[in-house]
Amino acid sequence: MTAGARPAPPKKSVRPYLVAVAVTAFTIFAAKEVGLSLSQLTENFKTGRDFLARFFPPDWEWAKENVPGPMIETIQVAILAAIIGCSVALPIAFWASKLTANNKWVYYIDKWFLNVIRTIPDIFWAMLFVTGIGYGPFAGLLALIMFSLSIMGKLLSETIDSADPGPLEAAKSTGAGHTQAVQASILPQVMPNYVAYALYIFELDIRASTVLGIVGAGGIGRVLEAQRAFFRFDRIMAIVIVIFVFVFLIEQVSVFIRRRLV
Amino acid sequence: MTEVFRDSEEPTARPEPRRGAKWTRWLIVAVLVIPAIWAALGLGVSLERILSAPADMWNIIKAMFPPDFSSKQLGRTFPKVLESLYIAWIGTMIGALFSFLLSFAAAKNLSPRWLTFIIRNLFNAIRAFPELLLAFIFLPIFGLGPWTGTLAIGLHSIGTLGKLSSEVIEGIDAGPLEAIDSAGGRRISVMRFGVLPQVLPSIVAYWLYRFEINLRVSAFLGVIGAGGVGAELVSQLRFRNFPAAGTVLLVTIAVVLVIDTVSSMIRSRIIAGKAGEEGPTELFEEPSTVGVL
Chain A residues with CB inside 8 Å of B36's CB? Predict the structure, then answer.
């Protein structure tokens, strides 16, 4: 090759174009199915503008009386669900990694279990528990425990997969049992990640528990649903603002701690 | 060599356990146990209630089996699941389009400080609203139906995707940008040939990942009437028609599993360049990435 020769341009392929056409076609079809249309959208905005007037001004007098109680319930559900869910997830995550599973059957069953429970959204869990156990925050708590468990199980087991296996071999060569060896070698490696994930899951739980009440699983969502039935949108606005400020603050604090941790 | 022998003459002292371990442990206990007790007392949760929960759940699962696989029930369920799929897809598209444009303005290496500050906090603010809450607000404005759910998912996705995309853009190599700049390329060329090729694979992978999440979200948005399979689950559970509810759940789980598998295959292909190599898990390695899933 002579110096300064231009490198050959990459080969042209039709595949990207085919993919683009297929994606566009599916998008247009799906857009039709969900009822996307510009004329309707402008109409929506017109009614929306009139409607937004009913959201203002937020009814703070009412909110002062009625929001703090359910809001505390929401926080309690999130705290307890994050703590229980993340604790239960710890052994489950270790069984779901090839590196630390006791044997391959445990690994496959656990992995399958985590994949399946991860497909069920938090609100579905809440509906199932409400049906099985009855209305109230306890159903929400159980729903968020399942939700926390499924996310922590996936995140932590993937972190364990990429942990350094050296210390594990070292610990085993000293004659430590499987559990002992894992405890001494892998656990300290993934601990910072575990704490960071736990904080992240707490954030998700807070966000989720604010709306669980809409399906009857306790917390501030229950008040939201009740006020919607009364068409009191000024009260809904007050609740929405409280939720927003609260979730925003929790997230900022949690992100700050997480950046420090990892 | 001699040094090694000298060392072995007197046995190595055991390393001292790290100091401060004790009070850290107490601090952790205080941070975890006190709120846990406060929450448990406030909710009236007792250990026996938690331990009896699996049995209650088992009863419901038993009632759902065998699921109602009659063609009538499947004929009701499938169109609803497909509707959820469309909602998730269009919602993701809306989120991808707007977040892509905004993420350049939110990247510290491409935009002035004041602009990144505004856009970043816009992303944070959007993310603070759960999708169900957004749909709840949109419902009286846009009416019952899939369009409301689509908008709620689209808006929330702008926040989550915007944050991730701008972080991808901030992580790029500045070399190619300078090269194009010094060759006299205009700003648009710098973006097209310097930035875009570096960020597109990761960003498209995030879009797909978000689509997987949005599919779960659109499944439950139907609960409040914003379109999708959630409405069907609500009505079957309300009428205590457990075999039919079981069908709805199983079909939803199956569709989500299939989409997850296909999407993560495409993702690892995009990121690693070859099928079957590691990729999707890498998405979670960055601590900042854990911020939004």
Answer: 79-80, 83
